[in-house]
Design brief:
By secondary structure, the protein is mostly helical. The protein has helices spanning 4-14, 21-30, 36-68, 85-110, 112-130, 136-164, 170-181, 184-195, 205-215, 217-224, 231-236, 240-258, 285-309, 312-318, 323-334, 336-344, 353-372, 377-404, 411-463, 472-476. Mean pLDDT is 83; it is low at 9-19.
Length: 477
């Protein structure tokens, strides 16, 4: 290593830090080969993120159990009725909204690691308490609190992953991250299939499903304490020596593993920056267009995505399938959730990111409309699996994409701001889908999903910039 890296080493030795020292740290990260030392860090993040996905998706799978126990009803007389299952779904998304918006700011100020480890512990405690409640009001309250923890997780995980991995592997890294995360979906589906129709030890089965998700969270919380802070975030905060120590350790581990020297780092010239990151900067000329684009995108993608993912068992029941078979079919569909991202790793960094988002959304719209017209169980399962594959391709690609569009100094804040609107739309979609299901049936629900996906296609297809293989600093400034 020489050139800019030697200059930075001299600055560190003299106790000073040049303005472009952060650029050197970033360039050193981007030129690393995607070797096991980096994959191991992504895996550790993914293990903690598993519980965030378990939390989000148990909403769909315990829904029939909550209805069966008499706590909630499938639909409501009033649009905002608290007795309906839609209120339970809405409470989760209200919590996710607070978690993404508030904790995004904290992760930019205090660091990625401290926020996502604290968020996992928060989720575990509140989920245990949720499953101890017996009234709709208290269940809704604790569902809101668990949503806050899960919302904080997703923002900091995406910022951390985007900042840690090299430029030419961001797509694969997010696909791998999501593949590990989404093994939680068939897990919760299988647990619900086994427990929800029963009452082990006289306790409602849905409660066991929630408690099972809390068992491993504490152990993973301790594992994640061993993760380093994001070197990019440290460097941007002027903590160059700490960032250098982390990157140097990665470099040594990778060189020892591959048995070859690393290429020279090629720093991207630092862009002019605001003195202090703020929400106001999102609305200034450099980022205004991207902010509006991602706000529109997130508002509509969540209606389409969660309209299917959070309602699969209930929609199957509405098509005349009983609770037990509904949960079994839902489990088969859920198996596709981790498979989709694994398959996507083969093209995640070869096809421009925006076009993966567009193609996935278009596929969801078409498949959903066909799904709504089916009565045969085999076709329902096949189309449900295809819908799950498309939706997970959409998810990993847009999570990568929105993390690339904004600079390190406000990445978590920006992700939280644009992502939070998806929580608002998803919160209202719980009521909206319950309303559509009551008045227009399953077909009406999927017409709503298809319309939302059409807006997603137009928004990203027309206005999205290219990001593949570019340094974060070249994309976001």
């Amino acid at each position: 290593m020489h050139g800019p890296v030697q200059q930075m080493a001299g600055a560190l030795a003299s106790g000073t830090a040049a303005p472009d020292d952060a650029a050197v740290i970033n360039a050193r990260l981007d030129r690393l080969p995607m070797s096991w030392p980096i994959w191991k860090l992504v895996l550790m993040v993914a293990l903690g993120a598993w519980f965030e996905i378990y939390d989000v998706f148990f909403t769909a799978y315990i829904g029939p159990g909550l209805v069966r126990s008499g706590i909630f009803t499938t639909s409501t007389v009033n649009f905002f009725g608290f007795a309906g299952l839609g209120a339970f779904v809405a409470a989760m998304f209200a919590g996710l909204f607070v978690g993404t918006l508030v904790f995004g700011q904290l992760a930019d100020r205090f660091g990625r690691r401290i926020v996502f480890t604290g968020a996992l512990l928060w989720y575990t405690v509140t989920a245990v308490l949720l499953a101890c409640q017996h009234s709709a009001e208290w269940i809704i309250f604790f569902r809101f609190l668990t949503g806050i923890g899960a919302g904080a997780e997703i923002v900091t995980i995406d910022s951390y992953t985007a900042e840690l991995v090299p430029a030419d592997a961001r797509g694969r890294s997010f696909a791998f991250l999501q593949a590990i995360q989404f093994t939680a979906v068939p897990t919760v589906a299988l647990a619900a299939w086994y427990f929800v129709p029963t009452a082990p030890l006289g306790v409602d089965g849905w409660r066991w499903v929630v408690w099972l998700g809390c068992l491993g969270a504490v152990a993973v919380w301790f594992i994640r304490l061993g993760l380093p802070e994001s070197p990019r975030w440290l460097a941007q905060r002027g903590r160059i020596a700490e960032a250098d120590a982390i990157v140097s350790r990665l470099e040594r581990d990778i060189v020892a593993r591959i048995g070859a020297p690393l290429p020279d780092a090629k720093p991207h010239p630092p862009a002019a920056q605001e003195a202090k990151a703020s929400f106001a900067e999102l609305w200034r000329s450099r980022y205004r267009g991207r902010t509006i684009m991602m706000l529109v995108f997130n508002f509509f993608q969540s209606i389409g995505y969660y309209g299917f993912a959070s309602w699969v068992p209930t929609l199957l029941i509405a098509k005349g399938i009983n609770v037990t078979h509904s949960l079994l079919y839902s489990f088969v569909i859920a198996i596709a959730n981790p498979i989709g991202p694994l398959l996507s790793m083969s093209f995640a960094d070869r096809i421009e990111r925006k076009w993966i988002v567009v193609a996935s959304a278009a596929a969801m719209a078409l498949l959903g409309l066909i799904f709504s017209q089916q009565e045969d169980a085999a076709r329902i399962v096949v189309l449900g699996v295809a819908m799950a594959l498309a939706s997970n391709c959409l998810t990993f690609s847009y999570r990568t994409y929105q993390a690339e569009l904004f600079p390190t100094r406000m990445r978590s804040r920006a992700i939280g701001a644009v992502y939070s609107v998806s929580r608002i739309s998803a919160m209202f979609s719980g009521f909206l889908i319950a309303f559509c299901l009551r008045d227009f049936g399953v077909t009406g629900v999927f017409v709503l999903i298809a319309g939302s996906m059409a807006i997603v296609v137009a928004t990203i297809g027309l206005f999205g910039p290219r990001t593949n293989g570019l340094q974060l600093e070249a994309v976001s400034g």
